Amino acid sequence: MTNQLPISFLMIIIIATVLVSLNAFNKSHILDKMVYSPYRVKHEKEYYRFFSHMFIHADSVHLIFNMMSLYFLGSFLENELIFSFGSIGGEVHFLILYFLGGLFSTLIPFSRNQDNSSYRALGASGAVSAVIFAAIIWNPTMKLSLLFLPIPIPAYIFGPIYLAFEYWADRRGGTGIAHDAHIGGAIFGVIYVLIINIDKGKEFLSVIFG
Length: 210
Known about the structure:
Order of helices and strands: HHHHHHHEEHHH
Number of helices: 10
CATH architecture: Up-down Bundle
Radius of gyration: 17 Å
Structural class: mainly alpha
Strand content: under 5%
Shape: globular
Number of domains: 1
Distance between the termini: 44 Å
């Protein structure tokens, strides 16, 4: 007997997201039903929108970028979680991280836009950000790169640069991107790793200050 699962939750998430997103492209009634609307969450009690928006994307570029980021960093983190907590335990931790990260990423936009009927957001970016930053805390010395900085740099440097850019872009505004959701997801990713393995936080600090 073995507790090895036949397919990873990561791949299930990616396949489901791709299929739903492709089906929703140019279908306004599906997008309207699934998009994140803080106003409709609050005033129409459509709480499912806290999660449904993670399965739809604005276009193919948006979808590909999120799923590629999720695949590469998610594969690493999923394997690490399985190694630390076993097959089932690791997969469950990954599932919790992803979906609660996506939920946490909606909280700042909700606080800002709960009475704004025109605000709409979609995409898995907040949940993906949670995975990325959980991976950064888990292994701060791995090399990552940015689109505008294609030179691989250590994750512990990448993380602060990414957050600084997201904060600047959020303050500047006018991008049409939910930078506050990215920040919220990142914060959750860090917190979750510290909850399940505080030693990873200590190791991260030792890399920074050691």
